[in-house]
Design a protein that fits this description.
The protein has about 625 residues and is mainly beta. It has a single domain (about 35-635), classed as Quinoprotein alcohol dehydrogenase-like superfamily (Methanol Dehydrogenase, Chain A), CATH 2.140.10. It is about 10% helix and about 30% strand. It contains three helices and 40 strands. Strands 1-34-35-36-37 form a five-stranded mixed β-sheet, with no helix packed on it. Strands 2-40-39-38 form a four-stranded antiparallel β-sheet, with no helix packed on it. A four-stranded antiparallel β-sheet has the order 3-4-5-6, with no helix packed on it. The model is unreliable at about 1-30 and about 475-490 (pLDDT under 50).
Length: about 625
Amino acid sequence: MQNKRCRKVSYSTLIATALLFVITCKAQINTDRTWSVYKADESSSNYSPLNQITTTNVSQLQHAWTFTMHDKPAGSQPGKSECNPIIVDGILYATSANQWGYAVDAATGKQLWSFEALKGKKGTEVNRGLTYWENGNDKRILMSANNFLFALNAKTGKPISTFGKNGKVDLKVGLRDADKDFYVSSTSPGIIYKNLIIMGCRVPDTYGAQPGFIRAYNCTTGKLVWTFHTVPYPGEPGYETWPPEAYKTVGGVNNWAGMSIDSKRGMVFLALGSASYDFFGKDRKGSNLYANCVLALDAATGKHIWHYQTVHHDMWDYDLPAPPALVTINRNGKQTDAVAQITKQGFVFVFNRETGESLFPIEERKVPASNLPGEEASPTQPFPLKPKPFARQFITEADLTNYSPADHNSLINKFRSMRYEGLYTPPDLKGTLQLPGTRGGGEWGGAAFDPATNLFYIKSNDAPDLITIVKGTKQASTEQVTATSQLETIDRHARPDQFVNSTGYKTWKDPSGNPAITAPWGTLNALNLATGEYEWQIPLGNDSLRQEKDAPETGQEGKAGPVVTAGGLIFISGTEDKKLRALDKATGKLLWKTVLPAQANATACTYQVNGKQYVALSVGGTTENLSGFIMAFALP
């Protein structure tokens, strides 16, 4: 009798243990998916609920593993990796600067597979990540390289032949001039809604470029399901904001920065770029919808729901640089689902997620008129009255640096020679100072939102540009061409009645190479989205050679965004001093830092495997290893 009872107890214990094991495994799988989407989640929050690494123990953080890539051919320039890795069930997936795909063990850094998308051809070097999708046992990685979208078996890295044509879809198909030779790629990964992957794209900023239509593909077959015309066709809303034939010739208006999804509402939110050509709009008179818009679409159909245009008739390349962050704000005891959008100009726009109504007042203010022949600048631009700008928007001669009398005089003379009337000073034949410049203000690393505090953490640059307007037939110098991206430089095929900017995308410096304006040159900002007020603002990064004695750190330019955690921390890299930092999210106080082998021009991620929390990030290449690394850190 006792033996039977013992067997009964043992059997019950066995069942209970099995159930506990199942529950634990399920919890472990869920924990292992806290960073399974680009920028953490479908809300693009850059937030992690993990709290093993805290303000009290982060000082003990140490190197855990390094995965070294070897996919760039000898003689290449070191890669500039911008990938934000994703982690699914203990496997870290990432892309390299040369557009290879990788899967590695997230606990050890051991390679599981690699995928060479371009078969020996050179990648475009701008690739910020990839996308995971599953349906039962069908688990896929969707990644892009040049003009193709690939579907890979997540376990093996092999192309899935039934997707598109032999495992890939040509992203040219479905654009305006699909039968012609033109450049298109997808630099930021698509986002999943049910069985769809919704894709933006990158197109050149030159005359004659393609428009960046938004498209959704079936994750199983690769079939194109819907298209949204970002430059509207006749009969579509927004068509009246362009010249009648513009839809045949105008390009740009693309989503290169990524997007976010509200799955419950079935809405996808996009941050759109400027229309081409960026700095002269004679051929695109009007406000130019949906350029520079926060755009909400029905994720299943691509149908327009609402939009808000942050710049009318853009002439400064003020693309929206980061995905709209989907946030839930606690205001006066009421929860409000909202969309927060940072801009290159240093503004933060905050909208009701369902209606697009602004949560703070916005004022249309008069701005300067253009002097360029045929150009018609918008008479007004929108200025949020709250929150205040997180970046400098105006300088005087007192803000110019003085590293030597000769350098200072050169800056003074240049400043006085240019047209400058503050934000939205139009490009001009005499030259124009642009602040913030084409790289912000806000950058593609985006912001991080802490749902426990309403705080929105924003990395900002203070980087002025000089706009030099020349006739379209004038050739740029070799120095000007090599100093800027080949896709974003002077268009050599512009007509004589068109103008181009020959010195864009280059921070203004004095003749000796010093910054033209005084520090800080980069900041990290903690904004309370409930009140519209900043809790703190600090310089981020340090140029030790130019830091004055007993002065604060200089701050530096950087494109990577912050990561905020439930453990009370902010992790951020991207500055030119090659450091990864951990800060107290409540105060901005530095708690830990490490020097990386190269600049980590990418937003970090944090995840948990086998009960251990890691912080990982992509790091650029060096002269010793051109392809770059993925590095992970953890507690002892």
